[in-house]
Structure formats: structure tokens, C-alpha cells
Amino acid sequence: MTAIFTLTLTAAAQAGGDTAPSGLPVPRFVSLKVDRVNVRGGPDKDHDVSWIYTRVGWPVEIIAEFENWRRIRDSDGSEGWVYHSLLSGKRMAAVQLKSKTDLTPLHAKPDAESAVLARLQSGVLGSIKHCNGSWCRLSGDGFDGWIEQQRLWGVYPDEKVE
């Protein structure tokens, strides 16, 4: 019965914009609240731990909900179940590029012609301050500027974040 319910929730989540038991939209992006998050094969503690996240603030996408459990997807496409209190609504994003050696510019303004403040590599984590649908203001350890939204994992294409 749990498997059928899980499949139904996942299908609903993929339809986009549906609300779940929490009353919040599914799918949606959140971040890891703590530095040790167990990801399980199903929505209860009886399921084995599939892997453990160890990076606080890492963005993940909630794709389904079951009671107090959230099915998440990470930037690699891996999916599993996490207890809701281990997740935060704080919007974070990670730079995601084709190659780990590529760099992307961080600009002074949301404009490709503005001054380049830094060049960020894939995996750099930052807090999302604002997104206008094309650009996001990203702030992190030693940087604060604007990056093209398509270069981030943690926001949807064309999403606006206030």
C-alpha cells in the first residue's frame, strides 16, 4: 500500500504546483538543515539508510510528501526519503556546470556586461537573495553578486524569488 501511495504522490508532484500534506507546493526546493541527513529507501525509520548527506545547506528538491516524510531529489538525480525536520525552507543554490573544471562569472549586476566580481566553479554553495527569472543574487563565503539562473541547482527556470 505504501508503494502505491508513493507512486501516486510522485506522479502528482511531477504534474507541478500541487499541494501536499504540509500545505506547501510540490515540487519545491529546500535545503539541508543539519550536517548529517540520513536518506532512506522509504518514508519511515524501518527502511534502511541508503546514504547520508554531510553538507549543511545543500539544496534538494521535494518531489513528494507522506505524513512527516519528504521524498527528495538531489542535483545528481538521486532520490530518497528524509524526515521533514532535517530540511529547511532557506533557499540555497549550488553552481552547476557541465564540467567540474569550468568557471562561471559572478557579476556586479544582473547583466552579462556588468563587472565580473569572481568566477565560481561547480559545487560552490550560496544563499539565494533574489531571482528575477533570469538572474539570481547569490551570496556565500567571500562572495556576493549576480549569476545566470540557469547555472544554479536550487531554483527553477524562470522562477522569481523575493
Describe this structure in words.
Strands 10, 13, 14, 15, 16 and 17 form a six-stranded antiparallel β-sheet that branches. The longest helix is centred in the first third of the chain and has 14 residues, at 2-15. The protein has two domains: 2-90, Roll (SH3 type barrels), CATH 2.30.30; 93-161, SH3 type barrels (Roll). The chain has one helix at residues 2-15; strands at residues 18-19, 25-26, 28-32, 37-40, 49-53, 59-66, 69-73, 79-83, 87-88, 92-95, 103-107, 116-121, 125-132, 135-140, 143-148, 152-153, 160-161. It is built from one helix and 17 strands. Residues 1-15 have low confidence and may be disordered. The radius of gyration is 17 Å and the shape is elongated. By secondary structure, it is mainly β.
Q: Please tally the β strands and state the result.
A: 17
Order of helices and strands: HEEEEEEEEEEEEEEEEE
Q: Kindly report the average pLDDT value.
A: 91
Shape type: elongated
How many helices? The count is: 1
CATH homologous superfamily identity of the largest domain? SH3 Domains
CATH class of the largest domain: Mainly Beta
Q: Tell me the helix content.
A: under 10%
Question: Tags for this entry?
Answer:
162 residues; mainly beta; SH3 type barrels; 1 helix; 9% helix
